[in-house]
UniProtKB/TrEMBL annotation:
GO terms for molecular function: sulfotransferase activity. Its main location: membrane. PANTHER family: HEPARAN SULFATE 6-O-SULFOTRANSFERASE 3, HEPARAN-SULFATE 6-O-SULFOTRANSFERASE. This is Sulfotransferase. Keywords: Glycoprotein, Membrane, Signal, Transferase, Transmembrane, Transmembrane helix. The keyword Transmembrane applies. It is found in: Membrane. GO terms for cellular component: membrane. The lineage of its organism: Eukaryota, Viridiplantae, Streptophyta, Embryophyta, Tracheophyta. Residues 310-361 are annotated as: Disordered.
Amino acid sequence: MCLQIWHIVSASLLVSSSEDDYFRCESVVRNWADASSERGIKEDELTLKDILFFLHVPRTGGRTYFHCFLRKIYTSAQECPRSYDKLRFDPSKPNCRLVVTHDDYSLMSKLPKDMTSVVTILRDPVDRVFSTYEFSVEVAARFLVHPNLTSVAQMSRRIRPKSRAVSTLDIWPWKYLVPWMRGDLFARRDARELGRLRKTEEFSSPYDMEDMVMPLHEFINDPIAHDIIHNGATFQVAGLTNNSYAVESHHVRSCVRKHPELGHFVLEVAKHRLDHMLYVGLTEEHRKSATMFAKLVGAQVLSQSEALNSTFKQETSNQTEPSSSFSDSEADGLNQIEGSTNNQSDSEVPSSTHVEPARENMTVGRLMEIYETCISSLRKTQASRRTLSLKRVAPANFSKKARLSVPATILQQIQYLNSLDVELYKHAQNIFIRQEKHIMQSAEIFIQPEDLQTADCGGSYGCPPWKSLLVIALLAIVVLIMLFLSTGRRTNKVKK
Ligand SMILES: *[C@@H]1O[C@H](CO)[C@@H](O)[C@H](O)[C@H]1NC(C)=O
Ligand SMILES: *[C@@H]1O[C@H](CO)[C@@H](O)[C@H](O)[C@H]1NC(C)=O
Ligand SMILES: *[C@@H]1O[C@H](CO)[C@@H](O)[C@H](O)[C@H]1NC(C)=O
Ligand SMILES: *[C@@H]1O[C@H](CO)[C@@H](O)[C@H](O)[C@H]1NC(C)=O
Ligand SMILES: *[C@@H]1O[C@H](CO)[C@@H](O)[C@H](O)[C@H]1NC(C)=O
Ligand SMILES: *[C@@H]1O[C@H](CO)[C@@H](O)[C@H](O)[C@H]1NC(C)=O
Ligand SMILES: *[C@@H]1O[C@H](CO)[C@@H](O)[C@H](O)[C@H]1NC(C)=O
């Protein structure tokens, strides 16, 4: 039903727009695409350059990479200024080497291109939309401790100037999504009270509880979602978000919105960009992605910093354990209201200070151990904050299992609205396989025994099948050679 309506709507849009407009738009988009897919600079794509640009697509798990990998191997002195806290930042800090942000690819125009390696993580588009919805509700629900929106505004005026830390609310796309959802949650406040009294909704889908929260189908059909969520990964990698640095981006965006069949130009640019990245991870393949990140990126950061060792030798001392490192305080002031003594924040934003990494003797295997400890503590914190926050909209509660209650038509609609992202994700899956092969090949040349033990085959990391195969193959070759030698000797003896 919804899909059909959508088809009719987009068809009528097409009819109403003149042919002229279409051809003008086509040339705008085509010109942009040609200019964006610059050729050349092919060599050394797998070598880490001076600057690492982590293009963080929202809700792909990039935050854990930032806290649990990058902050373990980069010092705060190496982090480019205000990466993350303001999207439109000025990378003026000399010699900074790490840029982590929700900014789109057009940020490259501010960075020395030949000296910058880009990495990113992609996620199945349907899951990403679910996660965006859930996170918007989660963050917005925290404000329900306030009696009304006036009081929210007063509080943030009081807290913000004092706090140097960054709030989720400063960050694209949350700076749009959270206030929108927050306003909606306050508007539904009375309905929620009544709904709770009636208790009739206990067993219905949490994604469709009109009395409690904006239902998912309403969320995905809002113009804001069209602006910044749907096909968001493709637009971000292409450098065409509504937060872009590129002057022509607004024009190209509006053309593609008006004429969805021009979307393939954007998709091709995004694919091309992924092809040239140092690393592409997949949220779904979490373990493999993390191991691959440690090997493809982590190892290079470590050897790079060894070369630079003398510069920041002094920074490697005075180390405490990882879990305390995400003490970014949240500027929305909720911790204060709740009388909580913990300053931990669930915002997506790291603050500018952190526990300095001990990179002495750091190996890929050790990095993976640190990552594991860090991520499990990060997840615990996130889960408890989420539970606490969602209590305020109970009985609405989100979980993987509850997602099964969402009707197939809505899932199809999400896929349809994200058809570019669906294609981009498939492309990323192919790149992922290629990266795996590459690691396998370099491992054959250069097997690090300690990696075999600590990173891949030890503890919670299952031994990847290819490594066992490699060992078996090597053993087989050795056995064959020995057989050959001994038969050779025997025949020699017989001849004598
Ligand atoms: C909002 O809450 C504040 C603090 O409780 C109260 O003083 C104010 O009157 C409320 N405003 C409205 C419009 O209800
Ligand atoms: C980006 O999209 C949001 C949500 O629709 C909108 O509020 C905001 O004004 C847009 N920003 C720009 C620069 O167009
Ligand atoms: C590290 O800690 C020691 C004492 O534990 C202190 O003397 C030293 O100044 C600290 N170094 C830095 C860089 O903070
Ligand atoms: C929280 O931060 C405040 C200042 O921002 C500080 O005074 C307080 O000690 C911190 N509490 C904890 C538990 O770290
Ligand atoms: C760092 O450099 C110093 C000499 O400046 C050297 O003694 C030390 O072993 C180096 N450390 C690492 C981890 O390379
Ligand atoms: C690092 O390795 C050196 C020798 O290779 C050793 O003396 C030192 O204790 C190690 N440091 C740590 C923190 O393990
Ligand atoms: C919501 O679900 C989570 C598990 O998915 C559970 O831990 C939590 O207690 C639930 N919250 C409420 C308010 O029922």
